[in-house]
Each structure stands twice: as structure tokens, then as C-alpha cells.
Amino acid sequence: MRKDATQNHKKILTAATQLFQQNGVANVSMKDIAVAAQLGPGTLYRNYPNKGTLCLDLVYGHLETFIANQQRLTPTATTWQLLLTNYLSFREENRELLATIEGSSQVNFTQTTLYQQLFRLFTRFLQAVLPDATPTTIQFRTDMLIAMLKSDNYAFQRKQRGLSNDQICQMINAIVLSPL
Questions:
Q1: What pTM value is reported for the model?
Q2: Tens-place pLDDT, residues 78-113
């Protein structure tokens, strides 16, 4: 990447981060980001064709750290519970960015590196917790787990149903870890 392109990229990420923290992701437009970064709209859209891809870039570093920390755990029934609890905390901390990514019609979440990394992490743990499960069963349950915890589903359970993260974990375990 050219030096000026790298600088523009950093300006965009810095401006977006500041604006998102001040105003919330939903209340910031791509035009706001271009103005704050002191760049033309064309430069912004060459780097990020939409807000979903920008949010994906911002959350990616957080996800890498989360996954690296969780991969240090040895997969057991106890650490499965810890992983699930930590993932709900991660989703809570990054909820606006994740909601924008998942809600973007221009970002297919299941085709992102973000999804693939989560899939591998959860698969590794489910294989340990469900040793008799077939690879197809593990794959399906992992996909369904991630789908159950997408932003709109998670927010609905927390806000509309009034469930705590502990309750959500218990109910997820009842579904995902049910006998084969």
C-alpha cells in the first residue's frame, strides 16, 4: 500500500473510532467520517465501500485478541462455559460494530474471516465437549450457535425477554450440548 493510502486508511479508522465513541455507530454517516478525517468522499469509499466494511475492519483487531486469549484455554466442559461467557461479553462490548456488520446487505457475515475464526474456535471446543458427535453435527451446532448470537437475536433476548447473560448461556447449553 502506498504511503498516502496508508495514512488515509489510518485517518479514516481514527476518525470513525472517535465519532462512533462520541455519537454511536448508527448516528454517524460515511459523510461525517470523511469530514472528520479531512478526506474527500471518494477517498473514503475507495477504502471502505460502506459502513459495514469499515466496522468489520474496526472490530477485527478486537476479535483477534479475543480469539487469541480463548485459544489458550484447554477445551473442557468448564472452559466451554468460560468461552461462551467471554463471547457474550465480547459481543456486548462490540455490539454496535457487530450489529452494523451483520445488518449490512453488502457484507455476507458467513463469508468473512471473522466468521471463519469464530467457527474454528467454537468447533474446537464443541469437539471436546461432544466427543461422540459427528463432524456434521459439530459443524451444524457451531453454525447455529453463532447464528443464535447475532446482534439482533442477542439484543432481543437481553432487552425484550429480559434474560441475563448467565440465563442465555444456560439456555444455549441446553440446545447446543443436548444429547446426540
A1: 0.84
A2: 999 999 999 999 998 998 998 888 887 777 878 888
Residues 164 and 96 grouped into a single domain: yes
- Cβ-in-10-Å burial (0-12, 13-18, 19+) of 34 comes to buried
The answer to whether the Cα torsion of 141, 113, 57, 64 is positive or negative is positive
Contacts with 170 (C-beta within 8 Å, 6 or more apart), sequence order: none
CATH number of the structural domain spanning residue 2: 1.10.10.60
3-state secondary structure (DSSP) of residue 65: helix
What is the distance between the alpha carbons of residues 144 and 147, in angstroms, rounded to a whole number? Answer: 5
> What sign for the dihedral angle of Cα 120, 125, 128, 132?
negative
Q: Which of 48, 52, 26 is nearest to 39 (CA)?
A: 48
- Return the closest-CA partner of residue 37 out of 13, 61, 1: 13
Final residue of a structural domain among 10, 31, 48: 48
Identify whether residues 83 and 121 lie together within a single domain.
Answer: yes
